[in-house]
Amino acid sequence: MNLLDRTRTHSRYVGLEFKDVDLSSPLSEEETEAIRSALAQYGVVFFRDQHMSPESQLRFARQFAPIDLNRFFKPVDGYPEIAEVLKEPHQTSNIGGGWHTDHSYDEVPAMGSILLAREVPPEGGDTLFINMASVFESLSMGLQRTLEGLHAIHSAKHVFGHDGRWARRADTDGRILNPDVVPDDAKHPMVIKHPTSGRKILYVNPGFTVRIDGWTEAESKALLEYLYKEAMRPEFQCRFQWA
After folding, report:
1. What is the CATH number of the domain that holds 231?
2. Predicted pLDDT of residue 152
3. Which of 16, 41, 141, 220 measures 20 to 30 Å from 50, CA to CA?
4. Based on the structure, what is the number of domains in the chain?
5. Centroid of chain to Cα 148
6. Separation of alpha carbons 232 and 228, rounded Å
7. DSSP-assigned letters across all residues of 76-98
8. What pLDDT digit, counting tens, does each position of 33-64 carry?
9. Are the C-beta atoms of residues 154 and 186 closer than 8 Å to each other?
């Protein structure tokens, strides 16, 4: 049976869940391609009830792309390629709780992220995703053409730098590291093309996009806030409940 025959969608535009797949074992080329194709179409894919060792998690990741190290999160002991995103009960700050695109602040952003839940709270803790290709396609042709001629500046300084958001929090408890290695700001097209599907994707996010290149802060804010409002419409989202 084809891997894609054992799936269910999470919403109209984003999210596909595979059933009865064991990622702890090596995948065939056909299975890897089915996952890659689904990721290109749905933006995010889910696999429940996985029992993966760090070694099998890394092997799975390498079947899709070289691993991009996260420089700011504490790594799992013995596995520097795996970042640990942790929140203890006494901690009030929810790292990653706002809308963002992982690694958009890098000059060459990562292909994507692989999240593996080891422990989840008894309630809450859901993760929401947006398909930014569908968001772009929903915009008027005039706005699409305007956006295709623009670039945006992405930065990690206000988040992970010495004067950033997490440097000022008292309860990070060593979860966020290395403010000295925050990269220079990166400039990316506001519309990128998916390498597999060819779909055009709106490439801005409120977490790391700080302004539009060549525009003032006020001008940038007006357009970016409009785009974020459109992107956050419920029909473009899916909510994944880990438990």
Report:
1. 3.60.130.10
2. 99
3. 41
4. 1
5. 22
6. 6
7. ETTEEEEE-----TT----TT-S
8. 999 999 999 999 999 999 999 999 999 999 99
9. yes
Interval 87-135: pLDDT, tens: 777 777 777 788 999 999 999 999 999 999 998 888 888 999 999 999 9
Angle (CA) 31-35-18 rounded to 5° is 95
Question: Which pLDDT belongs to residue 166?
Answer: 58
Q: Does residue 7 have a pLDDT over 90?
A: no
- Strand-pairing partners, residue 216, are none
Which 3-state string (H, E, C) describes 179-240? HHHCCCCEEEECEEECCCCCCEEECCCCCCEEEECCCCHHHHHHHHHHHHHHHCCHHHEEEE
pLDDT of residue 182: 78
Separation CA 7–CA 17 (nearest Å): 5
Token pair 């801005």 is at which residue?
Answer: 204
What is the rounded (10 degree) CA torsion for 170, 173, 175, 177? 80
Q: Which domain holds residue 26?
A: 3-240
Q: Is 172 helix (H, G, I), strand (E, B) or coil?
A: coil
The pTM assigned to this predicted structure is 0.90
Beta strands 79-83 and 75-76: pairing type?
A: antiparallel
Mean pLDDT across the chain: 90
CB contact at 8 A, 158 and 210: yes
C-alpha to C-alpha distances, 199 to 105, 130, 139, nearest whole angstrom: 22, 15, 14
- Amino acid letter at 119? E
Q: How far apart are CA 174 and CA 53, in angstroms?
A: 24
